[in-house]
Design a protein that fits this description.
The complex is a heterodimer of chains A (338) and B (254). Chain A is of the alpha/beta class. Chain A has nine helices and 16 strands. Chain A starts with a helix and ends with a helix. Chain B is α/β, with parallel strands linked by helices. In chain B, α2 (66-76) packs across α5. The chains are: A alpha/beta (338), B alpha/beta (254). At the A-B interface, α1, α4, α5, β5 and β7 of A face α3, α4, β9, β11 and β14 of B. β16 (317-320) of chain A pairs parallel with β15 of chain B. The structure holds flavin-adenine dinucleotide (2 copies).
Amino acid sequence: MTNRSLSLLTAYQRKDYWGDKMVVVYSENQKLACEMLSKARELSAELNEKVTAVLIGNGKDQLSSELIIHGADKVVMTGASLSDLKAEEVSDLLCALAKEEGAGLMMIGSSKDGKELAARVSSKLGVGCSTDSKKLYMRDGSICSERVVFSGNGVAVERFTSRPAVVTVPPKAYDPLPADVGRQGETVRKELPYGTYGSRTVKVDPMLSEGANVEDAEKIVSCGRGFKNSADIKLIEELAGALKGYTLGCSRPIAADLKWLSEDHWIGLSGHKVKPKLYVACGISGQVQHVAGMRDSGLIVAINKDANAPIFKVADYGIVGDLYQVLPKLINAIKART
Amino acid sequence: MNIVVCAKQVVDVGEIKVNPSSGKPMLEGIPKKISDIDKNACEEAIKVREKVGGKVTVLTVGTPDAKERMKELLAMGADNGVLVTVPDKADHLVTSTLISKAIQKMGGADLIICAEASIDQFSGQIGPRVAGLLNIPQLTYCYKVTAEPQKLTAERNLGDRLVTSESSYPVLVTVTKEVNQPRLPSLMQILGSAKKPIEVWGTSDIGAADLKPGIETIDIKGVAMSRKNIVFKDDLDESVSKLADSLSKEGLLG
Ligand SMILES: Cc1cc2nc3c(=O)[nH]c(=O)nc-3n(C[C@H](O)[C@H](O)[C@H](O)COP(=O)(O)OP(=O)(O)OC[C@H]3O[C@@H](n4cnc5c(N)ncnc54)[C@H](O)[C@@H]3O)c2cc1C
Ligand SMILES: Cc1cc2nc3c(=O)[nH]c(=O)nc-3n(C[C@H](O)[C@H](O)[C@H](O)COP(=O)(O)OP(=O)(O)OC[C@H]3O[C@@H](n4cnc5c(N)ncnc54)[C@H](O)[C@@H]3O)c2cc1C
């Protein structure tokens, strides 16, 4: 451990540290940052704090004004010397900022990067953290956050007893404020300290995407391991075609293990959360982790050859049968009715 | 190489029933198990030991009954276990502080492996928190890990991109479900695991007696979901036609 990072750590772990001057908003996803700013404005009024948005790394100058017109009082640009935005260094920067400016609440975008960052930041600050916060509000003077637990079977209400409260916020939880082009705010550049660590990024590859936007889909037809091989997925595409205006979804193993479909199709606790009007699950067992991603669907239809498959417990309509026999018949039946 | 696997005993979320009157999840009497991906973490630790040598310690913060579950990981091939008794009020801050203090008491670790997230609370906080407390690098969401004596390389799924990272030791790694297929211990290994030591440490043994949580869970609300549960299981042609009729009536075929 370097001396610098050691002294940083001890400063944060001082028990008397209790910020209350600002709400900090940070996400590499600018749209999400603007959504969080809207909530930050609302809370900052209650907390009587200012809203500061953070931009980390090089070449972000043009993003600053957008953050201000969407609600930031101040934009701090830092970490210009960082070419590789790793959680280790970025969390040092955010800790230093929280300390220097007296943050009472930190809102971090709930991407995978954001979640690992928020956890590291809160450990270094010695405070609590609520990940994937669905609701954020003040109750009796404390910041409270609600998040889904037990794979969708419950919602925990978490009350912060430490400050700054650190939360991660998923996309689309809040609507951004309309752009107020007349809004004034200051933009400052700040060099903040960060440690040196033994890790480095060797290579970054784009994630293969087939452009499935399951989150906005009205009808989703999903496939699971009940399919014997990737070529058979055309069966489900035919069904989806007959249903008109469909999007293809899948369970985790289809995307993550077998790679028959790209991960933009992956639905569930660790994938995309969807709420179409119609969700058809074919050859999906219906484990809680899958259901966590589609339980808000309007109507759920299940096709599975095992009458005891848990998917039937969460389905409105189900057919017990071999999907290789059911799907062609269903496609014809639907075509006959439309 | 000293390798620590962090493993959590969780309630089996697949078995949770909902209280029909309050709509809240009922947690009493639900079977407990080792969180699924922690077995992948243990498998990866054993693989690393097989390649570069060393010792694999399973570390759990939990209630005394977790000891039984930890034996499953010892049967897989971990060498020993440490169970830190969880205080009444524990949050991520408390749990991760206990884990990092226990690792310090062990004399440190070269490689710490956690799962990307637990199956019950699913916050994914503990790994990065432990790395933060120990001030060491964190390589999260690894679906491929290659350990060599001087450095570790990991392929990581960050959702919108795939990142290859490397690190010197000590390092903390979190793994995904896809990283490996956990081995099933043989009967001999299961019997043999009874002889492997599991030490039980109290919070005062590791100098963490009066930790205060940073959040309190004040309520767990139920999530209502009512479904029609109409299942057609007779003649296939009839079932299909009934389903198509139902979808048509719901106005979903347009
Ligand atoms: C922490 C964690 C997070 C996870 N996150 C997710 C997630 O986000 N999304 C997700 O989907 N999973 C997730 N999982 C995995 C999840 O637990 C299940 O393993 C997964 O959903 C199973 O996928 P499946 O239903 O396609 O496969 P299986 O469980 O293997 O089910 C296949 C089904 O197909 C049926 N079948 C077989 N042949 C036929 C046939 N010819 N006709 C009709 N039916 C047939 C079988 O009866 C069976 O029910 C997660 C797990 C963990 C531990
Ligand atoms: C007995 C017990 C009592 C609890 N009481 C409370 C309470 O009163 N109030 C409250 O808010 N919360 C309580 N918790 C929950 C606790 O705060 C979290 O479960 C814990 O901090 C882990 O968070 P998580 O499940 O989100 O793990 P994640 O961060 O998602 O876990 C990721 C990985 O970290 C490791 N890990 C996580 N937890 C442990 C652990 N305990 N031991 C070893 N490795 C671990 C595993 O590798 C795991 O897969 C309790 C937990 C336990 C076990």
